[in-house]
Amino acid sequence: MKANVVRIGNANTSGDTEFPSVAHPSGSRGRALTKVEVEHSELLFALFEKHLVGTRALGAKTVELAMGAVRGFQRWTCLPPWDWAPPDFAEFIAYKVTTDGIGLGRQATYITYLRGFQNFVFDSRGLSNDIHQKFGVQPQRFINDENAIPIRRKRYERKKAILPLSGEQCQALIEQFDTEIRDAKLHGSKSYKPLQRDKVMVMVTLMTGVRVDELVHLHLSDFQADHKHPQFGGYALMTVVRGKGRKSRVVRLYLPSIREVMDWYLDDVRPAFLRATSSEPSLLFLSERGGAICTEQVRRMLGRVAANAGIPVRVTPHILRHTYGTQMANVIGPEALQRQLGHENLTTTLGTYYHQNPEHVGNEIETGVTNLTNAINAMTEGLLDEGDA
After folding, report:
1. Percentage of residues of the chain with pLDDT beyond 90
2. Under 8 Å CB-to-CB from 205, ≥6 apart: which residues?
């Protein structure tokens, strides 16, 4: 009986942007697929897309990129997903590098989305068993540590090293805020309250290591007390929700001075930004118009104040996050730091912030606590009476 052969992919699928020509290039093991293979492949793709939209709650653009990568790889291999093997992925990447000139970042993107599809199939015993029953094969992992890690390692090796701020630089940054706040008050400038707000935003970032998009979306209700640590008041714990996938985590505060900072800010600063027209009046940090603050505004503000403070590097919110992570790495350990920073993989935390030397653990802990405590103490010193200076 002659098998029905069908070409996978509709003309308007996002994956078709990978190879726009009619005659798609293919891998060395490519073959014509039967109608049953096409239909089952399309079923897997549809289920994966539903998983990304529903379970993972990813945005439309991210889902489009993911499905484009998966479908593009399928069209190139001319094989059903359950026949994909490590050599196919290696051959595909080699082709994309030599023909399209893709860099390490794009290679890592393919790894992310294709491995996501691979894990989706493998994590569902029902999907794997169904494939085995219908086609008599057991899907294998076509992306593994051997062919994925070298690409990721090369990519990270090419990244420019991110250097944290020193305790002295943190202090210089906050002192610059204090100088500008005093000048603004002296001259009756409209920037007086915004500068106070911005100073607290920087301090919260240094105390918690939150991302800038997490910072601007903090709400008053995100802070809570811990009866075991009354010295923190109502600010011992902070719930953080990340925009991508709406994932949440709880960040523990380690410096009791957060209580003084937040009480002062909520009583003396934040009320100046509340408006009757505020769409989200529960936001912790509000703009001058009473709305949400955009992340780019925070970046520009931080870069300007840091430059005025004479700090010889471009200071970004991520630099502040990195400063927190570096100082706390050997204080609370890698697993706790991973949870604090919201990293999905421990390897990210270990490779970026955690450089433990067993012979110097005691010194590192003492230095880390001292540096961070000194920096925060310098920030909060005179906080309540800064306007009297």
Report:
1. 48
2. 212, 215, 317, 320, 321, 324
Q: Rounded to whole angstroms, what are the CA distances from 281 to 173, 197, 287, 365? A: 29, 15, 11, 40
If you ran DSSP here, which 8-state letter would residue 98 be given?
A: I
Q: Show the tokens assigned to 216.
A: 């601007």
* CB-based contact 198:305 (threshold 8 Å): yes
15-70 pLDDT per residue, tens: 333 333 334 557 889 999 999 999 999 999 999 999 999 887 888 889 999 999 99
- Assigned token pair, 351: 């490779």
**Running DSSP on this structure, what letter comes out for residue 232?**
G
CA 387 to chain centre: 37
Question: Which residues lie closer than 8 Å to 344 by C-beta, 6 or more apart?
Answer: none
Residue 240, exposed/middle/buried by CB under 10 A (0-12, 13-18, 19+)? buried
CB atoms within 10 A of CB 250: 12
pTM of the full predicted structure?
0.55
The helix (H) or strand (E) run that includes residue 91 is helix 86-95
The C-alpha angle 58, 159, 249, rounded to 5 degrees, equals 40
Cα–Cα distance measured from residue 63 to residue 323, given in angstroms and rounded to the nearest whole number: 33
CATH numbers and ranges of domains, the chain: 14-158 (no CATH), 167-388 (1.10.443.10)
Query: Which amino acid, residue 238?
Result: M
Q: What's the token pair of residue 296? A: 């780019």
